[in-house]
Amino acid sequence: MKPALLFYCQHSVGLGHLTRSYALCAALTRRFRVTLLCGGELPRTIARPPRVHVVALPPLGVGPNGFGSAHPRLSTELAWAVRSERIHAALRATRPAVVLVELFPFGRAKFARELVPLLQQARALGAFTACSVRDILVASRQDQRAHDARARALADELLDAVLVHSDPRFARLEETFAEPLSVPVHYTGFVTGPSPEPAGRDDVVVVSAGGGRVGEPLFRAAIDAAPGDVRLKVITGPLFPREATLRKRPNVEVIAAVPNLAQELRAARASISQCGYNTALDIVRTRVPALVVPYATPEEDEQTRRAQRLQKLGLVITGEIDYERLLTFEPGRAQLDLDGARATTELLAA
Q1: pLDDT number for residue 149
Q2: Which of 74, 273, 337, 340 could form a disulfide with 191 if both were Cys (CB 3.0 to 4.6 A apart)?
Q3: What whole-number distance in Å separates Cα of residue 139 and Cα of residue 43?
Q4: Is 172 left (phi over 0), alpha (psi -120 to 50) or beta?
Q5: What pLDDT does residue 133 have?
Q6: Max CA separation in the chain (angstroms)
Q7: How is the beta sheet containing 270-273 ordered, strand by strand?
Q8: Cis before residue 105, ω within 30 degrees of 0?
Q9: Do 205-327 and 4-187 fall under one CATH topology?
């Protein structure tokens, strides 16, 4: 029988963490019996990976009134209690050989109250514990040095490995996390979803913003700037606010979600998007001419850093939305390791 693996994923503003976790779980089932703990909304439009047991935790995250419960019938404290019960029930039921947590302790500090006990109990059971992190971490917090020092101490205490889902030629952990770690760090390559089918280019520009929760300004700008002879397909995403409305134009099609963004980009003339991890990789592997407008706040610089690196490699362009510039752009060919899901599986199995 395959050994058991317990994977924890918490997503809030977007769906990038969930999408990457789903791709990892699909690969991990080749060597493990996988249980996935999910701590955010689970849109029906995103297919769950087959052969993976998904345990939904009452969603917690940042909303209009700050951090708290997103469950309609649970207070924040009750949501914490139910989450803790389900996490530890899953740990007891699976008795995993591996416990993999997404991002913590390099992020998700608010969830330390449930993640520290999970990792401590996993290690007491003899499980191998590891952290799954993307290519670029947030590195612009006001208390960044103190945050990194706490994260280093927790990583060295609670983890057996850190798995960085990046090609080290593109981004290395120490570039956005300055504290030296004692725990081993492994670079897996980038994690991508299913490969899109070959397709001819249609005469349409795809506009997307991941889950869509913060995509409205980009959608409005793309629609307003589009010449009348350019067709747009705007994919708002499953988290796009219901109260938001977009300008109607004859050359603009608006749809809520698609099962596979990479397939849409494979068949598109061009792309306008933000620059989250998954969207960026879909752009790279489909070689669609792409203009990226990174989502950024004073404490969120991850997408800006990724966009700058991709532009330096000739894979995207950045800046103001300019259709003439976009439609004449020819992207280069990436020399990046995109086999991270398989490599992660083999590392953990070993």
Answers
A1: 95
A2: 340
A3: 29
A4: beta
A5: 97
A6: 63
A7: 252-255, 232-235, 205-208, 270-273, 290-292, 317-318
A8: yes
A9: yes
Query: Please, which residues bridge with residue 305 across strands?
Result: none
Residue 241 CB neighbour total at 10 angstroms: 12
Residues 6+ apart with CB under 8 A from 148: 177, 178, 179
At residue 242, the pLDDT reads 87
Determine the Cα–Cα distance for residues 36 and 284; give it in Å rounded to an integer.
Answer: 28
pLDDT less than 50: residues of the chain? none
Angle at 267 between CA 264 and CA 268, to 5 degrees: 80
Nearest to 349 by CA among 130, 92, 166: 130
What is the CATH number that goes with domain 4-187? 3.40.50.11930
- pLDDT for 14: 79
The phi and psi torsions of 161 (rounded to 5 degrees) equal -165, 155
In degrees, rounded to 5, the angle at the alpha carbon of residue 257 between the alpha carbons of residues 243 and 303 is 85
Domain boundaries, the chain: 4-187, 205-327
CA distances from 290 to 171, 315, 335 (A): 20, 8, 17
pTM higher than 0.90 for the full model?
A: yes
CATH of domain 205-327: 3.40.50.2000
